[in-house]
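Bench log. Compound arrived from synthesis this morning; before running ITC I wanted a structural hypothesis for how flavin mononucleotide sits in the protein. Inputs:
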Amino acid sequence: MPRDDSHLPHALQGLRLPMIGSPLFIISVPKLVIAQCKAGIVGAFPALNAREAEGEHPLLDTWLTEIREELDRHNQENPDHPAAPYAVNQIVHRSNGRLERDLEICAKHEVPIWITSLGARVEVNEAAHSCGGIVLHDIINNTFARKAIEKGADGLVAVAAGAGGHAGQQSPFALVREIREWFDGPLALSGSIATGEALLAARAAGADLGYTGSPFIATDEANADADYKKMIVEGGAEDIVYSSLFTGVWGNYLKDSVRKAGMDPDNLPTADASSMNFGQDREKPKAWKTIWGSGQGIGAVKSVGPASAIVDRMAEEYLAAGRKLAAEFS
Ligand SMILES: Cc1cc2nc3c(=O)[nH]c(=O)nc-3n(C[C@H](O)[C@H](O)[C@H](O)COP(=O)(O)O)c2cc1C
């Protein structure tokens, strides 16, 4: 039976798999986004990944042209398997001095899906709506979820425990349940959704979509160091540490990368939120250059390969798991 996604905004309907390839700082570049969209899931990147040198044409503008042209070409050649739409992530934090300019560029390109992080603002939602886009705002608890919808976001990304990069601490089951008590709009769930079984569980819990990042680090298209990709392939949940030290926000990181930087991942001090900085000069201190983010779900990643292979694997697992459970209820 086809999936009923008629309650979702048009941009989120008809995906091959109900999934978003989540935005990854530094790692998500047009090559990866295009591969994700062609494979049939929403591909996303942070606007801040597109950094031009001083005085040069905005790289974000160039990237958005490249993505749109490549997806248009794909759609003309593959009318039966059109690409999924893409999303751009905006860090809505006072230290992001490019925000206004980036919003204008995204509105000019009529970006279909806008993902906002670290602050819900009415003007950002209005900019997205002015060009027909939808906004998904990421949150780590029910209070932030309510604020985001009050300020005009169309949907939510619930970032639960075990997610890569900045992550919450709440169980996905608790978080989705609390949100679903008052919100029936688009809801994606983030945190260790690295298998088709986990994606099915997210749907069963009440989410519309899975939101997956870390497995895509170990892909040919990802802009990541070969050692980083290897660490993802070799790691599992026990190799992840939750810390606020590196950005001022709590997040999950690979313990081995912390060790390589000369620190003990099991004895890290905490940092205060005032150390957050998402400006153009968002450079990590030298000792932290190689601190690598990852969620707990990487045990499912067995090799480095094309992004499409992850989508294919998850699609097969999703179908098999769905059929198995359906048999129980038939
Ligand atoms: C290395 C890394 C960088 C990330 N950068 C961003 C970012 O710039 N913006 C953002 O909204 N989320 C970012 N995230 C969070 C992801 O979008 C998403 O919530 C997470 O990857 C999902 O959990 P998973 O990695 O377990 O699949 C990042 C995650 C990782 C692992």
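What the model suggests: The domain at 15-224+297-329 is CATH 3.20.20.70 (TIM Barrel). The chain has one domain: 15-224+297-329.
ITC booked for Thursday regardless.
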